[in-house]
Specification:
Blueprint: E1 12-15, H1 19-31, E2 35-41, H2 48-52, E3 55-60, H3 71-81, E4 85-87, H4 97-105, E5 109-110, H5 115-122, H6 124-133, E6 141-142, H7 148-158, E7 162-166, E8 176-178, H8 181-199, E9 204-208, E10 214-222, E11 228-240, E12 243-249, H9 256-271, E13 277-285, E14 291-297, H10 304-311, H11 315-323, E15 340-347, E16 349-350, E17 356-357, E18 360-361, E19 364-366, E20 373-377, E21 384-385, E22 392-400, H12 403-416, E23 418-420, H13 426-432, H14 436-439, H15 447-451, H16 460-473, H17 477-485
Parallel strand pairs: 1-2, 1-4, 2-3, 4-5
Antiparallel strand pairs: 6-9, 7-8, 7-9, 10-11, 10-13, 11-12, 12-15, 13-14, 15-22, 16-17, 18-21, 19-23, 20-22
The protein binds ligand MV4.
Residues 139, 163, 171-172, 207-210, 213, 215, 239, 242, 282, 284, 294-295, 445 line the site of ligand MV4.
């Protein structure tokens, strides 16, 4: 099962990515004394990851399809530079089994799992079947391989609503909810067409639709010697169009007993594919706190810092150690979740205009600092935000001893943040930090899209009552009074910190 997996000591690494994650991996490599090599497109000639690296290689035009997404260009840059390993970051080539295989064939260490693990988990249906065999709970469903009439008979028996899912999908692509038996066959046909057009694979399957669920995922580390550990959960329910916007660790609804159970199940799922490196098991959790496997992400994730802050473990350094063939030095019993961390993704987009991406020259970027604040970013004053890549320009991550303390820090840090030249979603985050549903932890995966609006200002007394009730219930009375005294305008108009 680990065919195509190469781990060995390396002293140089090429980072096949850009932006904040390229910076994140470069920093880890520097700390470990590994020579770090960047690649860049036309648009990224002056990008920070190029300046920070020991060497940088040009790989093509600005569109990712002509540079960061071309396996041959990355491999060629690795060979020219003599890089002994490649870290793919997230996105781009991170979850392409064929790219991992190319690295293997060239004798280059791919910082990730085997091509086999990537392809099994990349196909949602084979992932589902593989983890079922390992005893992992999945949403009740109906496997493919049946005729449409057989699918319908099985669905009628299972009961509605059901969710039609594309096997090649993921991230919500090709999904269709069906509420009535009469609508099933046409939805199956439509989902097949959509999946065929999008992925060249029309395989679909059915699951019972879980409404009002939460997206909770477990971070894992697994070495090439058969050891795997869980680093606890992240709460990722706050999403818009399948893009996460705020993540936190731990989750408000997970206690230590549930964390242990979810962790053990996640480890079993990873072991079922001989998984090596950092990875994440995504679960859907229903209102009764029953949890079901959704997908596995076979890469480092955007939101890994919240787990780093509550466990004290440097996930990217651990990835590099694992890829170098080392045994995990952390034992499961030594993993302790302490305090609370929240991440706000800072996107160049306009929250007041349907989150339209915003491009242009960043003239000012004043980054918040101080206790408990971490900013991972790939931009600086003078940097031009182009339309070629993802709109996420920074991650603002705040730590506190309690959830209330982390929220207070986040409000303070959002107040300090000044980005000029492009519009950002900072006002969205400030609004969320005033939302009584966010403050009280009462949200599901529909919240951002269906129940949250930039227009409504909650009545101050409702907000205060909600905060007080929630935080007092969690022995955080002191934080409650602080949050209330800074609510209303959030303290944002009381002072200005002048920037020169
Ligand atoms: C579901 C579901 C409800 N019931 N499966 C969305 C992306 C992919 N990871 C699976 N997804 C879902 N699967 C069943 N049986 C609801 C979602 C879903 C969702 C899941 C996680 C985070 C955000 C979401 C937003 C909409 C739907």
């Amino acid at each position: 099962m680990t065919d195509g997996l190469l781990t060995k000591k390396f002293d140089s690494i090429l980072i096949a990515n850009r932006g904040e994650i390229a910076m994140r991996v470069l920093r880890a490599a520097r700390e470990l004394g590994i020579k770090a090599i960047a690649v860049y497109s036309d648009a990224d000639r002056d990008a920070p990851h190029v300046r920070y690296a020991n060497e940088a290689y040009y790989i093509g035009a600005s569109p990712a399809a002509e540079s960061y997404l071309v396996p041959e260009k990355i491999i060629e840059a690795a060979k020219r530079s003599g890089a002994q390993a490649i870290h793919p970051g997230y996105g781009f080539l991170a979850e392409r089994a064929s790219f991992a295989q190319m690295c293997y064939d060239e004798g280059i260490v791919f910082v990730g799992p085997s091509p086999h693990a990537i392809s099994v988990m990349g196909d949602k249906l084979t992932a589902r079947q593989t983890v079922i065999a390992a005893g992992v709970p999945v949403v009740p469903g109906i496997e493919a391989g049946l005729s449409d009439d057989e699918l319908k008979a099985a669905a009628d028996k299972m009961g509605y609503p059901v969710l039609v899912k594309a096997s090649a999908g993921g991230g919500g692509k090709g999904m269709r909810p069906v509420y009535k038996s009469e609508e099933l066959l046409s939805s199956i046909a439509a989902a097949r067409r959509e999946a065929t057009a999008a992925f060249g694979d029309g395989t679909i399957y059915l699951e019972k639709l879980i409404e009002g669920g939460r997206h909770i995922e477990i971070q894992l580390l697994a070495d090439a010697h058969g050891n795997a550990i869980s680093l606890g959960e992240r709460e990722c329910s706050l999403q818009r169009r399948h893009q996460k916007v705020i993540e936190e660790a731990p989750s408000y609804v997970v206690d230590e007993e549930l964390r242990q159970r979810m962790g053990a199940v996640a480890v079993a799922a990873a072991k079922a594919v001989g998984y090596v490196n950092a990875g994440t098991i995504e679960f859907l959790m229903d209102k009764d706190k029953k949890f079901y496997f959704l997908e596995m992400n076979t890469r480092v994730q955007v939101e890994h810092p919240v787990t780093e802050l509550v466990t004290g473990i440097d996930i990217v350094q651990e990835q590099l150690r694992i890829a170098r063939g080392r045994k995990l030095r952390i034992k499961q019993e030594d993993v302790k979740v302490k305090g609370w961390a929240i991440e706000c993704r800072i996107n160049a987009e306009d929250p007041y205009n349907n989150y339209l991406p915003s491009t242009g020259l960043i003239t000012t970027s004043r980054i918040p600092t101080g206790p408990g604040v971490r900013v991972d970013t790939g931009v600086f004053p003078g940097y031009e935000v182009t339309p070629y890549y993802d709109s996420m320009i920074a991650k603002l991550v705040c730590y506190g001893e309690t959830r209330g303390a982390a929220i207070l820090r986040m409000r303070r840090a959002l107040d300090e943040y000044r980005i000029m030249g492009v519009k950002t979603n900072i006002p969205f985050h400030q609004h969320m930090m005033d939302s009584h549903r966010f403050l009280s932890g009462q949200f599901d995966t529909n919240f951002v899209e269906e129940r949250f609006s930039m227009d409504d200002r909650e009545a101050i007394h409702d907000l205060q009552a909600a905060i007080m009730a929630t935080l007092v219930a969690h022995q955080q009375g002191e934080q409650a009074s602080q949050i209330i005294s800074s609510s209303g305008d959030g303290g944002r108009n009381q002072w200005r910190w002048h920037y020169r």
